Amino acid sequence: MKIIIVAGARPNFMKIAPLVHQLRKSDADVTWKLVHTGQHYDYEMSRVFFDDLELPEPDFFLDAGSGTHAEQTARVILAFEKVCIQEKPDWVVVVGDVNSTMACSITAKKMNIQVAHVEAGLRSRDMSMPEEINRMLTDAIADYLFVTEKSGVDNLKREGRKDGDIFFVGNVMIDTLLYHLDQIKKNPEPKENPAAGTINDSPFAVVTLHRPSNVDDRNTLAGILKALVRISADMPVIFPVHPRTRKNIEVFDLEKIVNDSNVQLLPPMPYIEFLSLWKDAFLVLTDSGGLQEETTALGIPCFTIRENTERPVTIEEGTNRLVGTTGEGILSAYEQLKTRGPQRGKVPKYWDGKAAGRILNVLISK
Ligand code: UD1
Q1: Where does ligand 1 bind, in terms of residues with CB under 6 Å?
Q2: Which of 319, 309, 321 has the alpha carbon at shortest distance from 346?
Q3: Residue range 203-223: average pLDDT?
Q4: What is the pTM of this model?
Q5: 200 alpha carbon – ligand 1 mean position (Å)
Q6: CA separation for the pair 139, 161 (Å, rounded)
Q7: Interval between CA 248 and ligand 1 midpoint (Å)
Q8: Active site members
Q9: Quick one: which H or E segment has residue 364?
């Protein structure tokens, strides 16, 4: 059996890592190749993750780069078709919900190659999110649907997918998290961390922000930054800034809001450096999908700066809370957290570090 594994953007790399490591260990009759579409290409968004996550050089780098959605998607499709023609894989494995996920699924399926989608079934029901369109298109055509939480199974069944195509296997990103947490505990030498001078042993908050709906609109971004400045009067706020957000802070001339505050704007961080930081945070504020799940896995309070989430288990069982996208919403949730204290959560089913093994067992047994 021949498998192609696809990754394109930062949140994909931690999801493919445990699959790659399982394949390396496997003595099954499987060959595999790794494709990096090049959707993310900056050193801080890509290369450093390959190093941290002990990923091999990709066999193919498609150099898709940025651009409009059509441009980026089209470049991935054109380049990935050539890979499929050359390699003739039995399976293409895609992860997550980025443009590369959808583009490679469509390319493979039209060539009658079987597609497995890891992290299938998540739905925000918000069609203004490019990721929601990518999820729905990918799940509509993928042969095997590997699901992280029960809501994913329910969504797929509601959309008419057969029981036999759906596999509730858990969360590969949590495989990566638990592995690296263990590594950090085994090698506790403090790594040089750009935030180290600020945080000491006192409480601190960590922020990530990159969704177009939050960062492409001046008023929305300004409101969020003002709320962060208010929180930073109580504790340092460490904010590694995504390139898209950095660009907009400059274009909208918003740096002055955070100047002279305890909000620290930093470059994007490598995986291990970032994990070493946020694992000890008092509070994480984010619009990322991944961090909603990672904070739930470690029981850290998370404010999700969105109106909806495709990951409801993080709210129903975990430590996540939807706070909306206004400064007022963020601050009222923050005041409640201060007066009532953090809510307890539990770790969702199968978020146990063994999801990649379950996925490969299914693929190999077919
Ligand atoms: C993409 C994903 C999103 C994911 C996010 C994680 C889609 C539709 N979106 O969003 O789901 O949560 O990645 O980061 O696939 N840029 C750089 N260097 C890079 C990559 C991007 O400077 O290495 C800048 C470019 O100016 C680019 C902008 O960031 O225009 C956006 O990049 P893009 O890949 O289009 O989307 P993201 O916002 O990163």
Answers
A1: 9-11, 39-42, 45-46, 66, 97-99, 130-131, 210, 242-244
A2: 319
A3: 97
A4: 0.96
A5: 32
A6: 9
A7: 13
A8: 210
A9: helix 355-365
